[in-house]
Design brief:
Helix content is 34%, strand content 25%. It has helices at residues 31-39, 90-98, 114-128, 144-158, 172-188, and strands spanning 7-10, 13-16, 19-24, 43-44, 47-49, 60-62, 66-71, 77-82, 102-107, 134-138, 164-166. It starts with 6 loop residues before the first strand and ends with a helix.
C-alpha cells in the first residue's frame, strides 16, 4: 500500500506524517477482529464485558478505540483504529475521524436496516470532512445480487455512490487486500 512520505526534515527536527484510518460500524460487526487479523497480538483492544446483553449477545464490547499498526512497504506504518459501535460512544467516533485520512465503514448488508445503518455512518464521516475517502466493507457473506441491491439502494439514499467490497475480517489476506483497494482511494483523492 502506497502513501505519502513519512518523514520530512525541517532544520534539525523531523516532521512525522502518521497515516491513520478508522473502522466504523455497528456493535459486533468485526472491527476488533479485523484489527486483530491484521496485527495479531500486537494490538490494543478496549473490550470489556458486555453489560447490555439485550442489545447484543456478544460477550465483550469495545468501549474505547482499538488500535493496531500495519507495516507498509518502505518502512511506513498505517495506524488502524476501531471505533466502538454503540451510539453512546459517538464522541469517540468524532475524535477518531478528526485525525484520520480515511474511513472503512463495516456493515452486514444482509440485515434489513443495513442501508440506513451504512448511510448513517457515511453521513457521520461526511459531517466531519466532506472529502474524506470512505469505503464500505461488507463484513458478512452476501451474494452478488444482494450486494448490487444494497449498493443501488444506498446510492439512491445518499445521492452518491460509495465503493463497496466484501471481505472475511478473520482472514489477514482478505483484510490486506481490502486495505490495498482502499489505498487507491487515498491516492486519488
Amino acid at each position: 500500500m502506497a502513501g505519502p512520505g513519512s518523514v520530512t526534515r525541517v532544520g534539525e527536527n523531523p516532521i512525522v506524517c502518521i497515516l491513520r484510518i478508522v473502522l466504523l460500524g455497528p456493535m459486533g460487526i468485526g472491527k476488533t477482529t479485523a484489527i486483530r487479523s491484521l496485527c495479531g497480538d500486537l494490538m490494543v483492544d478496549c473490550d470489556v464485558p458486555n453489560m447490555d446483553p439485550s442489545s447484543s449477545a456478544k460477550k465483550n464490547t469495545t468501549v474505547g478505540a482499538d488500535f493496531g499498526v500495519v507495516e507498509l512497504d518502505g518502512g511506513e506504518q498505517l495506524h488502524i483504529y476501531g471505533s466502538p459501535g454503540q451510539d453512546r460512544f459517538d464522541f469517540v467516533r468524532g475524535w477518531l475521524l478528526s485525525m484520520s485520512i480515511g474511513v472503512i465503514v463495516m456493515v452486514d448488508a444482509n440485515q434489513p436496516d443495513s442501508v440506513q445503518i451504512a448511510a448513517q455512518y457515511i453521513r457521520t464521516v461526511l459531517s466531519v470532512a466532506e472529502t474524506m475517502p470512505c469505503m464500505l466493507l461488507l463484513a458478512r457473506p452476501i451474494s452478488a445480487e444482494a450486494t448490487d441491491r444494497f449498493s443501488s439502494a444506498l446510492t439512491k439514499m445518499l445521492g452518491m455512490p460509495v465503493p463497496a467490497i466484501t471481505a472475511d475480517v478473520r482472514e489477514k489476506s482478505q483484510m490486506l487486500d481490502a486495505l490495498d483497494i482502499f489505498s487507491s482511494l487515498l491516492v486519488t483523492t
